[in-house]
TrEMBL record:
Entries under SUPFAM superfamilies matching the protein: Nucleotide-diphospho-sugar transferases (SSF53448)
UniProt xrefs under InterPro entries: Glyco_trans_2-like, Glycosyltransf_2, Nucleotide-diphossugar_trans
Species of origin: Micavibrio aeruginosavorus
GO MF term set: transferase activity
Name of this chain's protein: Glycosyl transferase
Amino acid sequence: MSNHLPKITIGMTSFYARETIARAIESALGQDYPNKEILIVDDCSEDDSVEVIRRAINGVSYARLIVHEKNTGFAGALNTIIANADGDFLVIFDDDDVSHPERLSRQLDRILRYEADYKTDLVLCHAARVQTYENGYERYEKTVGTDIGKAPNGSIMAERILTGNLGSYGSNIVGSCANCARMGRTEIFRKFGGFDSTMRRAEDTDFSIRFALAGGHFIGIADPLVHQTMTGGAEKSVDAEEIAETKVFKKHEAFLRNIGWHDFVRDWMAIRYAYFRNQWG
């Protein structure tokens, strides 16, 4: 029976994840959707992450591990997954998150129903998340496109991501589009050239903008199907975030100029990061 269902690749990157990835893999193995593969790419970890992964997938016929000989960053590791995925659909799991057992089934069902209703396969589906911080604080992170009906799409969605302008969609266009909660047809990721491997942060934001500008639709599930662990690190510093956001801004300057938001976004970004530095250094 499962052979008649679309195959879903669970793509998971790993980098110094020895403490968390066994739990993440257990979450992938526990998905109730039958026709799946698990494809893990370790991005040249120098701890024993690879050994932990090998133990976790030992004897699992539908799980594979690729080990990078050189660190490429998160985007580069995702691109290796995209290039090697056998599934019709690709869903991204982080190496320190846990997904609800029905995540694959529910996101696939949402996509297939939307494709049938609106006659398009340019669809990405994101799930809401529960985020847990290092101090134990938890919060619900809404995702975009959870209302029934036509989802945010096209240049209006690109404008919302870059400027925050809600356009005519109201609250349905509010919410994040994080990689760790994303599913789409594998061909979509390939068609748009995967992720920008020169970016160490905000590669998911850049992909979403490019997808939106090509007419892509953003649908969502309001239930938090991902439990996300929020961690710190140098790659998430104020400086790193500003570098990443500036790169996104520069890549899409022409669009911002065309819609009349260029100077506002530039100036607001400068104000925000000046404030962040004053607060957190």
